[in-house]
Specification:
This protein has no helices and 19 strands. With 229 residues, the protein is mainly beta.
Amino acid sequence: MRRFRLLSLVPLVLSAVLLPGSGRAAESAVVLKGTVGPGFFITLRDAQNQAVTRVKAGPYTVQVEDRSIDHNFHLKGPGVDQKTEVDAVGTVTWNVTLVDGKYTFVCDAHPGSMKGVLNVGPAPVPLPKLTGRVGPGRTISLKNASGAVVKRLAAGSYRIAVKDMTRADNFHLLGGGLNKKTGIPFRGSVTWKATFKVGKRYTIRSDAHLKLRRTFTVGAPAPPPPPPL
């Protein structure tokens, strides 16, 4: 059995940079701890031993403890490709710089079952949601997150959750370059991403009964809130 040469651990003193929801922030050093083995176990944690899924971009000290000759720890992503050896055990330290993007840590001998993901950078902002419905009966609607029927909408991208509850009609959204629809005999749920443009008029309708329709217009996005006094 081979062992890695133990490397001195040099803490990197910076301000805490872990994002909310990714584990508690390190207080005095940006340190990530990787562990693989014994058994089919691989993890990446912060200095407080909390599992990490997202961090800010920047320099990090990654301390890896490889506890098994059957596995290794392989960290890879933009600008980083560091790994221990499968047939060796021991502790190593890597000083790396993480940039916005996606990194993976895997065991190369068992990549299908021993793997994890580390996201770097701010979490994506969820799109505002609209809810479309057609049926039951001769009804069709598009509502905002508060449940109000959409008559005027701020420009931008939205996630539209559509419930088609009838085989007699479909839900067809069109206008401003958009043309998304369910099938007339279809019943079920679909989700679309749509971008609405300023000054355009949009229609939701049934292609089976063209009088079953509603329209709405799109205005400028709402201005950002003023900064606090």
